[in-house]
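Researcher: Watch the backbone:
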Amino acid sequence: MLIGYGRVSMPDQNLDLQCDALKAAGCERIFTDQMSGARGDRAGLARALSHAREGDTLVVWRLCRLGRSARDLVNTIADLERKRSAGTL
């Protein structure tokens, strides 16, 4: 399954462009957040990752929507790898 994740940094920004692109890419489920990527408690991302199962693909419009820094991206990937190794993904 393709799982989409979109995020905007400010409440007055719009997610439509990202959601439209994720739908066009074939995402069956789309999770979103409307907060800064610097915050670690992104509920939409947490729901997307908990929804994911082995063989699923997480799709983002741009990598900067998934993590604000290379470290964030590496940590997210490491978390996914740990879950896969533990059989909880």
